[in-house]
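[Solved] Which block belongs to which protein?

Original post:
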Amino acid sequence: QVQLVESGGGLVQAGGSLRLSCVASGSIFSIAAMGWYRQAPGKQRELVARITSSGRTNYADSVKARFTISRDNRKNTVYLQMNSLKPEDTAVYYCNLAHTGLGLNYWGQGTQVTVSS
Protein backbone atom coordinates (compact mmCIF):
# COMPACT_ATOMS: atom_id res chain seq x y z
CA GLN A 1 0.00 0.00 0.00
CA VAL A 2 1.23 3.45 -0.93
CA GLN A 3 0.16 6.66 0.75
CA LEU A 4 0.56 10.03 -0.91
CA VAL A 5 0.48 13.22 1.14
CA GLU A 6 0.25 16.56 -0.65
CA SER A 7 1.08 19.95 0.79
CA GLY A 8 1.72 23.49 -0.35
CA GLY A 9 -1.68 24.59 -1.53
CA GLY A 10 -3.26 27.86 -0.50
CA LEU A 11 -4.58 31.22 -1.59
CA VAL A 12 -2.47 33.38 -3.88
CA GLN A 13 -3.06 36.43 -6.06
CA ALA A 14 -2.95 36.17 -9.82
CA GLY A 15 0.64 36.30 -11.03
CA GLY A 16 1.93 34.69 -7.87
CA SER A 17 3.64 31.36 -7.28
CA LEU A 18 3.13 28.22 -5.23
CA ARG A 19 5.06 25.00 -4.88
CA LEU A 20 3.19 21.79 -4.22
CA SER A 21 4.88 18.76 -2.68
CA CYS A 22 3.78 15.15 -2.53
CA VAL A 23 5.54 12.61 -0.34
CA ALA A 24 5.02 8.92 -1.05
CA SER A 25 5.37 6.08 1.43
CA GLY A 26 6.84 2.73 0.49
CA SER A 27 9.72 1.69 -1.70
CA ILE A 28 8.41 1.91 -5.24
CA PHE A 29 8.56 5.67 -5.73
CA SER A 30 11.74 5.60 -7.81
CA ILE A 31 10.31 3.18 -10.39
CA ALA A 32 6.88 4.82 -10.66
CA ALA A 33 5.56 7.60 -12.81
CA MET A 34 4.29 10.57 -10.81
CA GLY A 35 1.65 13.01 -11.88
CA TRP A 36 -0.23 16.09 -10.77
CA TYR A 37 -3.89 16.35 -11.70
CA ARG A 38 -6.47 18.97 -10.86
CA GLN A 39 -10.21 19.21 -10.61
CA ALA A 40 -12.12 22.46 -10.62
CA PRO A 41 -15.74 22.65 -9.43
CA GLY A 42 -18.10 21.19 -12.01
CA LYS A 43 -15.25 19.94 -14.19
CA GLN A 44 -13.55 16.63 -14.78
CA ARG A 45 -10.17 15.84 -13.28
CA GLU A 46 -7.42 16.68 -15.75
CA LEU A 47 -3.73 15.97 -16.07
CA VAL A 48 -1.53 18.95 -15.25
CA ALA A 49 1.95 17.43 -15.43
CA ARG A 50 3.60 14.06 -15.34
CA ILE A 51 7.14 12.79 -14.83
CA THR A 52 8.33 9.29 -15.58
CA SER A 53 10.77 7.25 -13.51
CA SER A 54 13.51 8.30 -15.95
CA GLY A 55 12.64 11.98 -15.60
CA ARG A 56 10.76 12.57 -18.83
CA THR A 57 8.04 15.18 -18.41
CA ASN A 58 4.88 16.25 -20.14
CA TYR A 59 2.46 19.09 -19.43
CA ALA A 60 -1.02 20.22 -20.23
CA ASP A 61 -0.93 22.97 -22.84
CA SER A 62 -2.59 25.36 -20.40
CA VAL A 63 0.34 25.22 -17.97
CA LYS A 64 3.36 24.88 -20.27
CA ALA A 65 6.08 27.43 -19.54
CA ARG A 66 4.43 28.29 -16.22
CA PHE A 67 4.54 25.03 -14.24
CA THR A 68 7.47 22.69 -13.64
CA ILE A 69 7.28 19.16 -12.29
CA SER A 70 10.31 17.55 -10.66
CA ARG A 71 11.10 14.63 -8.42
CA ASP A 72 13.60 13.75 -5.72
CA ASN A 73 13.88 9.98 -5.43
CA ARG A 74 16.00 10.24 -2.27
CA LYS A 75 13.09 11.96 -0.54
CA ASN A 76 10.26 10.06 -2.26
CA THR A 77 8.88 13.44 -3.21
CA VAL A 78 7.45 15.01 -6.34
CA TYR A 79 7.06 18.76 -6.71
CA LEU A 80 4.99 21.08 -8.83
CA GLN A 81 6.35 24.61 -9.10
CA MET A 82 3.56 26.88 -10.28
CA ASN A 83 4.41 30.37 -11.51
CA SER A 84 2.36 33.12 -13.10
CA LEU A 85 -0.77 31.66 -11.60
CA LYS A 86 -4.12 32.55 -13.10
CA PRO A 87 -7.64 32.42 -11.62
CA GLU A 88 -8.39 29.52 -13.97
CA ASP A 89 -5.72 27.49 -12.18
CA THR A 90 -8.02 27.37 -9.14
CA ALA A 91 -8.74 23.73 -8.34
CA VAL A 92 -8.03 20.85 -6.02
CA TYR A 93 -4.67 19.43 -7.03
CA TYR A 94 -4.08 15.69 -6.66
CA CYS A 95 -0.86 13.71 -6.67
CA ASN A 96 -0.81 10.39 -8.51
CA LEU A 97 1.60 7.47 -8.46
CA ALA A 98 1.32 4.89 -11.21
CA HIS A 99 3.18 1.85 -12.45
CA THR A 100 1.43 0.18 -15.35
CA GLY A 101 3.44 -3.02 -15.26
CA LEU A 102 2.65 -3.62 -11.60
CA GLY A 103 -0.93 -2.45 -11.94
CA LEU A 104 -0.48 0.32 -9.40
CA ASN A 105 -2.43 3.55 -9.32
CA TYR A 106 -2.64 5.65 -6.15
CA TRP A 107 -4.05 9.08 -5.36
CA GLY A 108 -3.42 11.61 -2.66
CA GLN A 109 -6.17 13.38 -0.78
CA GLY A 110 -5.76 16.62 -2.71
CA THR A 111 -4.72 20.14 -1.84
CA GLN A 112 -6.72 23.27 -2.64
CA VAL A 113 -5.17 25.99 -4.78
CA THR A 114 -7.12 29.22 -5.07
CA VAL A 115 -5.95 32.07 -7.28
CA SER A 116 -7.67 35.41 -6.77
CA SER A 117 -7.94 38.01 -9.50
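(Second protein starts here: sequence line, then its C-alpha coordinates.)
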Amino acid sequence: QVQLVESGGGLVQPGASLRLSCAASGSAFRFLAMDWYRQAPGKQREVVAAITSGGSTNYADSVKGRFTISRDNAKNTVYLQMNSLKPEDTAVYYCKADHVVTRLTYWGQGTQVTVSS
Protein backbone atom coordinates (compact mmCIF):
# COMPACT_ATOMS: atom_id res chain seq x y z
CA GLN A 1 0.00 0.00 0.00
CA VAL A 2 1.20 3.49 -0.88
CA GLN A 3 -0.02 6.70 0.72
CA LEU A 4 0.40 9.99 -1.11
CA VAL A 5 0.03 13.42 0.46
CA GLU A 6 0.15 16.56 -1.69
CA SER A 7 0.91 20.04 -0.43
CA GLY A 8 1.87 23.46 -1.72
CA GLY A 9 -1.28 24.61 -3.46
CA GLY A 10 -2.75 28.05 -3.02
CA LEU A 11 -4.04 31.25 -4.58
CA VAL A 12 -1.56 33.19 -6.69
CA GLN A 13 -1.61 35.92 -9.30
CA PRO A 14 -0.87 35.28 -12.98
CA GLY A 15 2.85 35.06 -13.61
CA ALA A 16 3.63 33.78 -10.13
CA SER A 17 5.24 30.48 -9.14
CA LEU A 18 4.27 27.61 -6.88
CA ARG A 19 5.94 24.37 -5.94
CA LEU A 20 3.78 21.36 -5.22
CA SER A 21 5.08 18.44 -3.20
CA CYS A 22 3.86 14.87 -2.98
CA ALA A 23 5.21 12.76 -0.16
CA ALA A 24 4.93 8.99 -0.55
CA SER A 25 4.99 6.38 2.17
CA GLY A 26 4.38 2.68 2.46
CA SER A 27 6.60 1.39 -0.31
CA ALA A 28 10.10 1.77 -1.66
CA PHE A 29 9.93 5.08 -3.48
CA ARG A 30 12.42 3.95 -6.10
CA PHE A 31 9.83 1.49 -7.44
CA LEU A 32 7.28 4.24 -8.10
CA ALA A 33 6.74 6.08 -11.34
CA MET A 34 5.14 9.39 -10.40
CA ASP A 35 2.74 11.65 -12.27
CA TRP A 36 1.03 14.95 -11.64
CA TYR A 37 -2.51 15.29 -12.93
CA ARG A 38 -4.95 18.17 -12.71
CA GLN A 39 -8.68 18.56 -12.97
CA ALA A 40 -10.37 21.88 -13.63
CA PRO A 41 -14.07 22.41 -12.89
CA GLY A 42 -16.21 20.75 -15.54
CA LYS A 43 -13.22 19.16 -17.26
CA GLN A 44 -11.65 15.73 -17.32
CA ARG A 45 -8.58 14.95 -15.29
CA GLU A 46 -5.46 15.36 -17.41
CA VAL A 47 -1.83 14.43 -16.99
CA VAL A 48 0.48 17.39 -16.52
CA ALA A 49 3.89 15.84 -15.98
CA ALA A 50 5.44 12.44 -15.40
CA ILE A 51 8.71 11.11 -14.06
CA THR A 52 9.79 7.49 -14.24
CA SER A 53 11.46 5.56 -11.47
CA GLY A 54 14.69 6.20 -13.37
CA GLY A 55 14.15 9.95 -13.58
CA SER A 56 13.00 10.41 -17.17
CA THR A 57 10.43 13.17 -17.54
CA ASN A 58 7.57 14.06 -19.86
CA TYR A 59 5.20 17.03 -19.98
CA ALA A 60 1.88 18.05 -21.43
CA ASP A 61 2.30 20.57 -24.23
CA SER A 62 0.36 23.16 -22.25
CA VAL A 63 2.99 23.28 -19.50
CA LYS A 64 6.24 22.63 -21.36
CA GLY A 65 8.82 25.25 -20.52
CA ARG A 66 6.88 26.43 -17.46
CA PHE A 67 6.57 23.37 -15.21
CA THR A 68 9.30 21.06 -13.97
CA ILE A 69 8.78 17.69 -12.33
CA SER A 70 11.51 16.26 -10.13
CA ARG A 71 11.95 13.62 -7.48
CA ASP A 72 14.06 13.22 -4.36
CA ASN A 73 14.35 9.53 -3.62
CA ALA A 74 16.02 10.23 -0.28
CA LYS A 75 12.94 12.18 0.83
CA ASN A 76 10.35 9.96 -0.91
CA THR A 77 8.97 13.08 -2.52
CA VAL A 78 8.09 14.27 -5.99
CA TYR A 79 7.82 17.96 -6.82
CA LEU A 80 6.12 20.07 -9.43
CA GLN A 81 7.69 23.48 -9.87
CA MET A 82 5.19 25.71 -11.64
CA ASN A 83 6.37 29.00 -13.08
CA SER A 84 4.63 31.68 -15.12
CA LEU A 85 1.27 30.48 -13.92
CA LYS A 86 -1.80 31.30 -15.97
CA PRO A 87 -5.49 31.42 -15.02
CA GLU A 88 -6.01 28.29 -17.13
CA ASP A 89 -3.69 26.42 -14.77
CA THR A 90 -6.37 26.70 -12.10
CA ALA A 91 -7.33 23.19 -11.03
CA VAL A 92 -7.06 20.58 -8.34
CA TYR A 93 -3.66 18.95 -8.76
CA TYR A 94 -3.29 15.25 -7.97
CA CYS A 95 -0.26 13.09 -7.45
CA LYS A 96 -0.37 9.55 -8.88
CA ALA A 97 2.02 6.68 -8.27
CA ASP A 98 2.40 3.56 -10.38
CA HIS A 99 4.32 0.72 -8.77
CA VAL A 100 6.59 -0.70 -11.45
CA VAL A 101 6.56 -4.20 -9.93
CA THR A 102 2.98 -4.72 -8.68
CA ARG A 103 1.45 -2.49 -11.40
CA LEU A 104 -0.88 -1.00 -8.80
CA THR A 105 -1.88 2.66 -9.00
CA TYR A 106 -2.35 5.07 -6.12
CA TRP A 107 -3.74 8.62 -5.94
CA GLY A 108 -3.33 11.46 -3.51
CA GLN A 109 -6.20 13.58 -2.23
CA GLY A 110 -5.37 16.61 -4.35
CA THR A 111 -4.35 20.19 -3.69
CA GLN A 112 -6.09 23.27 -5.07
CA VAL A 113 -4.20 25.72 -7.26
CA THR A 114 -5.98 28.94 -8.16
CA VAL A 115 -4.43 31.52 -10.47
CA SER A 116 -6.36 34.76 -10.42
CA SER A 117 -5.80 38.48 -10.27
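Accepted answer:
You had them paired correctly. Confirming on the second one: The mean pLDDT is 96.
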